[in-house]
Amino acid sequence: MSEASVGRARGGARVAEAAPPDDAPVSPFLTEPPGELTERLAALGTARHYARGEFVYRQGETSTRFHLVRTGRVRIYLHRPDGSERALAYAEPGATLGEAACVDGRPRHLASVVTQPSEIVAVTRDALLDAARDAPELLLELTRRIAYKQRVMQLHVLIEGLPARERVVLLLGHLVEAYGEVALDTTTRLSIRPAVDELGLLVGLTRVTMSRELSRLVAEGLVGKDGRTIVVRDVPDLRRRVHAVLA
User: Fold this and answer.
1) Which residues are bridge partners to 77 per DSSP?
2) What is the pLDDT of residue 19?
């Protein structure tokens, strides 16, 4: 979900932002590199600090605000009628959340909770609309982000129909794209250390099943563990496996 950076031509003329490539991977790890549109959206609102475990918003609430993450990480999840939860995405710096409810005024169908101390900007619908009168590209950018979330939902629908092994392979592919630190030997170490149960929630698996599938991938030599850190030992092989799942 990368936002292209804004360049400047000689003489100070602004170069239009490029659209994300058509083949950019759809991932539930939502992040936006620093860019002009992200900064302009953030400038419309008010920032506050959240402690770990604090809700940004709850499922069922109505609001005329959306939020932009400046620092930290936010888990976006669905609370099911049977009391269980399904994690759908993680919002990191530059990402926005709660856009749809801000626009249509309907109750939020998801909840969001901070998983590490975070600074988050709240932007009201009125502030967005006022700014968009002179800068319609802000509305287009928010629409792009909402459309991307729809693709993430489609990803979850796809995952629901897959065996556990293929779910884990897809998840590892997304983790590498979002957090991989690729070395020259094509081995990558993830820059985050997610808990096994947290990973399981993201693809609809129990902790036991997720742990079992990771252990099998370790035995196959695709994945290694360094404490709680996940190391993918053969990135090209992982990408081949991801392609086979999606083919």
Assistant:
1) 87, 111
2) 44
Distance between the two ends of the chain, CA-based, in angstroms?
21
Domain of residue 59, residue span? 10-160
Mean pLDDT of the chain: 86
The tens digit of pLDDT for each residue in 45-93 reads 999 999 999 999 999 999 999 999 999 999 999 988 888 888 999 999 9
Torsion of CA 231, 233, 239, 245, to 10 degrees: -80
User: Kind and range of the H or E element at 70?
Assistant: strand 65-79
CATH code (residue 170): 1.10.10.10
Of 160, 185, 208, at which residue does a domain stop? Answer: 160
Contact yes or no for 95/114 (Cβ under 8 A)? no
Q: Cα–Cα distance between 175 and 190 in angstroms, integer? A: 7
Residue 49: strand pairing partners: 119
- Given a contact cutoff of 8 angstroms between Cβ atoms, the answer to whether 64 and 106 are in contact is no
Q: What is the DSSP letter of 5?
A: P
Residue entry with tokens 């884990």: 168
Dihedral angle, C-alpha 212, 218, 222, 227, nearest 10 °: 110
Q: Which of 111, 127, 160 finishes a domain? A: 160
Cα 15 from Cα 102, distance rounded (Å): 30
CB-CB contact of 113 with 55 (8 Å)? yes
Residues 151-186 as b/e (b if ≥16 CB within 10 A, e otherwise) read ebeebbeebeeeebebbbbbbbbbbbbbbbeeeeee
Q: Which residues contact 234 (CB under 8 A, 6 or more apart)?
A: 186, 187, 221, 222
